[in-house]
Amino acid sequence: MKKLSALSALLFFSFFVLAQKSNYVFFTEAGEPFTLMLNGVSYNAAPQSNVKAEGLNEGTYAVRITFADASLKPVLEELVLNEGVEVTFVIKKEKTGSIETGVKKFSKGFLSTKSDSEIAKEKQQVDAEAAKGKYTLEFLSRVKISEASSNTANNPPAPPPSTNLPEAGTYRGSGDPMKGLNVDKPKNMLVGNYYALIIGVDNYKGKWPPLKNAVSDAKAIEALLKSKYKFNTFHTLYNEQASRKAIISELEWLSKNAEEEDNVFIYYSGHGEFKKELNKGFWVPADALSNSTADYISNNDLQTYLVGIKSKHTLLVSDACFSGDILRGNTISVPFEDTEKYYRDVHGLISRQAMTSGGIEPVLDGGKNGHSVFAYYFLKTLNENDNKYFDAGQLYEKIKIPVVNNSEQTPKLSPVKDTGDEGGQFIFIKK
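Request: output the structure for the sequence above.
Response:
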């Protein structure tokens, strides 16, 4: 009798464990076929307009939805699945706003070195991408497995009429109806590619005197990032390579190739100029021979490309005279705290920041051990960091005091105003 009871208990426990598995259901609102991957595992070989993933364990899932139409961008999300539930998402298209589209089109032609026909073609492509729109996941329902229909995979629930859906923003009762589902705040960060554009110029001509340490600073930054931190792609321009045309071409390349989950690091070491009559700061490329702004790259130009580059995070570091002009305007950032939640939160928010070696003032070329004062402490801090995650704000706080105490310049860090910054942070991730 005891053996029978134990066997019955075991069977009941096994059934109970199996009953705690969970399901995901995804379907497209307009019927676009797609393939689904969860944590790198494919759930349908042939594209379908609805897919059900069954028998899933509780936990975090990296979701990748790839459309049969290759011109549509994949949907990348990270979701947390609770135990014993079936969660349904509808894949919806969001049209690109007219302002965002206008900015992208403007950046294609602004200071571009391409022909009019090429610029016109690229602007048409921007319009075509805007018409296709961006696809996102919208939470639809969450039910216990016992309540879920057995044929959901073949007949996913249709979304109710929009008039019956609650409006976003205000809720009756206490707090967010998504609270407890862990859908809106994933436990882990979804990290894209890391791109670096590094520019250093010593060999100036004409009006501009040569520098001694700009290229060695830039090459040391490149070597350090390659050896200690997660970076996928490096583009470098040293001395004569760093012409005005070449720098703008590299910024255009980033605007075309960086995706929405990616991270972009731009480092410039060279001469800078400030035109008092224009109240504006500039980079001085290698081929600038005169003091005409026609030869320069203005901070307004840089702001245009910071808008056009579609990365989640872009950090611009400028070790040049008068570079602090790009930071003008009052901005607000998320306060630092050394917790996993902080890094997850600031990584999830878009950032467009600039760190400069000084404000609207001259900065030193030399200083310590063959580097500028700013570059020396920038390198020292990143080299000595032992944490897996180290954000731009932490880096700045480490270098600010020693730079001020050992020079006549004051470094700055701030979001660049009117570029789409939402208070996030560029995070250096150790290998």
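The chain has a mean pLDDT of 78.
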